[in-house]
Amino acid sequence: MNVPEVDEKEVSHPHDARPTEHVECPSCEKVCHEVNHLPAPSLPFADKRVFNETRRMDAGSFTVVNRYFPGKLDEHNIPVPVYVKLQCMHCQDPACASACITGALTKKENGAVYYDVSLCIGCRYCMVACPFEVPAYEYSEPLMPRVRKCTFCYERITRDGRLPACADTQE
Amino acid sequence: MQHRPRPLRTRFWTPGTIIMLLFMAVGGVCIVARHLGGLAYATHLDDAHPWGLWIGVDVASGVALAAGGFTTSFLAHILGRERYEPVLRSAILTAALGYTFVAIGVTLDIGRSWAIWKPMFFWNPHSALLEVAVCVMAYLTVLYIEFFPVVTERFGQRFRILAWMNRLIGPFMWVFIILGVVLSCMHPSSLGTLMLIAPTKVHPLWYTPILPLLFLLSAFAVGYPMVVFETGLATKSLHLESEMEILGPLSRFTVLVLGVYMVVKIGDMAVRGTYVYLLNGSMQSNSFLVKVVFGVVVPWFMLLSSRVRKSRGALFAASTLIVLGVLMNRINVFVVAYEAPYTKVHYFPSVSEIAVTAGLVAALMFLCRMAVTWLPVISAPFASPGPDMQNPKATEVR
Predict the structure, then answer these.
(1) Would the CB atoms of B122 and A137 count as touching at under 8 Å?
(2) Model-level pTM?
(3) What domain range includes position B326?
C-alpha cells in the first residue's frame, strides 16, 4: 500500500508522549474533549479517582491516560506510578484503512489516519481490523452513527497550522 | 420418469405459515426498534465486539447455505448431468432468497443502513469486504436472472413484457450460469479472507492463512447437503414424493468434497500444530471439536455407506448435520473465535438480535413457500396416500 512520506521531525506525534514524563494531570483529556466537543465524562478531569481502573477509549473519549505501578519504588519505598496515554496511533500502515470498504479511513500526508464520515457505511470492519482496539462506535445513535477515534486534530493542523490540542497543552 | 415443474397450489395458510408470519412480525418489531434506538438498544454489540450474530449467521452463514444453487447449477448445466434438473429450480430459488436475506441482514447490521449503496461507487481496492459486497451484489443479480424464466413461465402469458425480457435474456443464459458458478467461488473465499486481517484476535484453532480456502471448500461441501435438506423439508411439509433417486446419487459428490474439506481442515491443524488447543476444555476448543466431529467427521462416515445414501431419513440426518456444521463454523470464525485483545467482556446476542435472525429465516421460508405454491418450481409429484408412501425405499435408485 502506498504510504505517503512523512517527515518525522516536522510532525508532532501524540503517541510519542513519553510515559515517564507524564504527571498526574490529564489536561490532555480535557483539552481533547473541549476541542472535539465531546461529552463530559462521569468523573471530572481533575478527579484522581479516574486512575483507579484502567480505561479504554470509547465513543465519547478519544484519549485516556491510565496509571500503572510497574514495581519500581522511590527512596521512601513508595511505588512509583507510570502514566500512559492511549489513543489512535495513526499507524504507518493502518489496518483500519486497509480494511475500510469504501476508503473512509485514509493515511494523510501529515501522518493522520483520517476518518471521512461521508464515505462511512458503518460496517465496523475497521474495528475488527485494528489490532489495538482503538476505533469506537456510536452504537446509541440510530441513524447517523460515526466511528470515533483521535483525529490527530486534522483540521487544526492543516487549517490553523497548530499542534494537536493535547500536545499544545503539556506543562 | 421426469416430471415437469409446476405450481403446487396447495393450501397456503397452514399452522406452519402462520407461525412463520408471527416470527416475521416479532422480527419486524425488533428491526424497527433497531432503527429507532440504535444498535445499542437492539444488540449487545460494543466496541470490543463490533460483529455479532447478524454478521456471523445472517451474512456469513446465509452465503454458505445458499450454496446449493451454484453447486447444482454446475452439475446440471455445466457438467450436463440433466438427471439433476428437477432439483435445480428449488436450489436456485433457495439461493436467490438466501442471498436476498444476506443483503437485508447486512443492511440492518451496518450503522448507516441508508448508506448501503455507497460501496457500489466508492471503492477501497485493498478491502476484502469490498470484494464480498460487490460479488454478492453481482451474484444476487445473476440469481434473479437465472430464476426469471420460472416467473415468466407462470406469468409470461399475462404480462407480455416478462415474456419479451425472457426472450432477450434466453440466448445469454449460459453466460449467467457460468458467471453464477464463477462468482460463487469468489465471495465464500472473500468471506474467509475477512478475518485474516485480525491475527491477534482470532483463536489459533481457526486463524490460518488458508482460511479463504477452507471457507470455499466448506461452501462447496454444503451445497448438496443443503439441497437434500431443503428438498426433505419440502417433501415432508408439502406431502410430495421424495426425490431420492436424485438425492441419493447427488450425495456421492458430497462424500468427495466433504472429504477434501475434512483432510484440508485437519491437515491444516496438524501442520500448524494447533491441535494442542483441542482438549483444553475452553468454550472455543469445545466449539471447534463439536463442529468438526458432528458437522464433518460423523456425517462423512455416514455418507460413505450406500445404505445411508439411499435412506431418506438417514440421508436427511447426515445432510442436516453438515448444514449445522457449516453454520457452526461460520459462527465460530466470526463470533466464538474472535476475542478483543484488551476488553475481556464476553458477547452474547441479545433477544432482539436472535428475534431478527429468526424473523429473517422465517421470512425466507415464507417466501419460499409462496414461490413453490404459485410458481413452477417443484417437479416432484404428490405422494399418493397408500402403501407406497409408508415405504420410502420403494423408489428405486438407478
Answers:
(1) no
(2) 0.88
(3) 15-382
